[in-house]
User: Fold this.
Amino acid sequence: RNALAEELTKLPNLFSFSDCAESIFKAIFNLCADPFAKIRLTASNALAELMIRLSQSEDKQYFESVLSSISSLSKHHSYHARLTFALFCGKIVQEMEFDDFCNSFLNNFLDLSNDPVPNVRFTVAKQLVEKFLRKEQYLTNPRIIEIMTSLNHDKDPDVSFFANPDSVTEKLLGKGLPKYVPFITNFKPYHVEEFVAPSSSNQVSGRGSRVAQTSSTPRPSSNTISKYIVSEVYAYK
Assistant:
């Protein structure tokens, strides 16, 4: 089944929009609630590739024809399917325009932050930190800030740790410090600071660490709207 899912990932670019929306979509969709995590992950990637392909069509009926089925995964009785939807959103958010993703998937994805299964909530937190918060539109989204704060106080220790402000900052920075990064303080937008490589006066330690400021730029007043300047997208590995 995993081999099938891997092959299905390659097919969307080889077939017509109608074939993608019908035959290929059905084959991928049947794998989305698979009990094996590796197969679900591959299926989520295949589903994302298919939606990217359908979004390229001038006729939006193909994209819209499968939209409700994909969204239904977020309400599926099987938590496996809900996990697949969260993984799919983490993949597709990197490819879709902000407005298109918000209109199609964002609300259903964020609703999973209240899922009764800790693994689903953890996956949502993981996707938010590793995929969503690297983009300014999501980093400053009021509902995402509210959800990250809620996940930080989650009753499951893995979820709460992953959504901890210090942990989020460290993950966004990765192993080194880029020249310009968005600074996070309790998940509230903050002004841009210039950072340098860690030294004796500017350390990044393990869990519970905070990043020291090195810029002499004064902190803006509460009514000042901050603007983020990010030189590159840094992937967390």
User: Anything to note?
Assistant: DSSP finds eleven helices and four strands in the chain. Strands lie at 180-181, 184-185, 188-189, 193-194. Residues 175-237 have pLDDT under 50 and may be disordered.
